[in-house]
C-alpha cells in the first residue's frame, strides 16, 4: 500500500523548509495544495494517470511548482515533496542538494516536463537496502 502526502503534510513540510531556509510562511491557495496532494492518484477510465512511484512523485512536485500555492518556497517544497514521497515508499534519494536545486529550478521555469522529472527521480533514487 502506498503512503501518500496529504495537504496537511505538505503545509507542514512547507513550514519546516521555511524555518530551515528562510522566507515568509504562508499558504496562498489551500485549494492548490489540496490539488497537488491529490494529483499523483488521479485516474482516467479506471487507469492510473501516473502508474509508477517516480511518476507519482513527479506529478506531486509538478503540481506544487505549477500551482504555486505557498507564499514562498514553492520550488523547495516541490522537490522536497517528491523526494519525501519516494522515501516514504521505500526509495532512497541519491541526488545532491545542488542537483535537487537545479532540478527544482528547471521544473519551475518549464525546462523539464513531468516525464523528464519522473526520469530524474528514477535516476536519482534506488530501493532502500
UniProtKB/TrEMBL annotation:
UniProt cross-references to InterPro entries, sorted A to Z: Doc, Fido, Fido-like_dom_sf, Type_II_TA_Toxin
Pfam families named among the record's database cross-references: Fic
Domain of life (superkingdom): Bacteria
PROSITE patterns linked: FIDO
Domain Fido, chain residue ranges per copy: 5-123
Gene3D superfamilies noted in UniProt: Fic/DOC protein, Fido domain (1.20.120.1870)
Record GO terms (molecular function): kinase activity
Name used for this protein in its record: Type II toxin-antitoxin system death-on-curing family toxin
Organism: Symbiobacterium thermophilum
